[in-house]
Amino acid sequence: MTLSHIAAMAENHVIGNDGELPWDIPEDMRYFMNTTKDHVIVMGRKTFETLDKPLPRRLTIIITRQLGYKAEGCIVVKNLTEALEEAKKHIPPYPDEVFICGGGEIYKESLPIIDKIYLTRVYEEFDGDAYYPQVDFSKFKKVSQIDRDDPIPFSFEVYEAIRG
Ligand SMILES: NC(=O)c1ccc[n+]([C@@H]2O[C@H](COP(=O)([O-])OP(=O)(O)OC[C@H]3O[C@@H](n4cnc5c(N)ncnc54)[C@H](OP(=O)(O)O)[C@@H]3O)[C@@H](O)[C@H]2O)c1
Question: Which residues line ligand 1 (CB under 6 A)?
Fold first, then answer.
């Protein structure tokens, strides 16, 4: 199984503010939707609650400490280990790559074990209350970068963990 982060972060590592994305970048939203389509996605309970409903064409695994938390059409688990065990049960039919979609707590906890990072860098600072963790990029190789400037400057970057 390939475990990947997919995240968009500001220069000051902000990823969210008051339960919302701090920016409106339609191309990044499309990138997220296209990249994760038809895959297993894992997210913290707060990130899940930022959605109106589960994203279609994806198997969503939600991590929460709340016993009895229910979300129609989703799998609810109590920690990251259980999330990955559940994900494995659904590969196949889902593809081998599983996406961790945030938020800050879940990114931080899973960082030591991820294989890949799809990182959108937004070249501005934003106020916020959720953060992407500090990454030791000497342990990753950048395999692609696409620069954009609409509506503000940002880049799509992909990193792979250096093993061994
Ligand atoms: N820019 C991006 O790419 C991006 C991506 C995703 C989210 N976001 C933003 O990030 C914000 C949400 O992130 P967040 O860090 O506040 O919350 P989060 O990580 O989405 O969810 C936190 C919740 O997950 C559960 N949880 C976390 N660690 C756990 C563990 N080890 N074991 C069991 N349950 C655990 C807990 O749920 P319970 O409280 O229910 O126990 C915790 O309150 C929002 O503003 C959202 O818009 C941004």
Answer: 7-8, 15-16, 19-21, 43-47, 50, 63-66, 78-79, 101-106, 109, 130
Rounded to the nearest whole angstrom, what is the distance from the C-alpha of residue 164 to the centroid of ligand 1?
31
Q: How far is CA 17 from the centre of its chain?
A: 16
* CATH of 2-161 among 3.90.320.10, 3.50.50.60, 2.40.110.10, 3.40.430.10: 3.40.430.10
d(CA 92, ligand 1 centre) in Å: 27
**Residue ranges for the chain with pLDDT beneath 70:** none
* Cβ contact 101:47 at 8 Å: yes
Could you report the per-residue pLDDT of 142-163, keeping only the tens digit for each?
A: 999 999 999 999 999 999 999 8
* Look-up of token digits 């950048």: 142
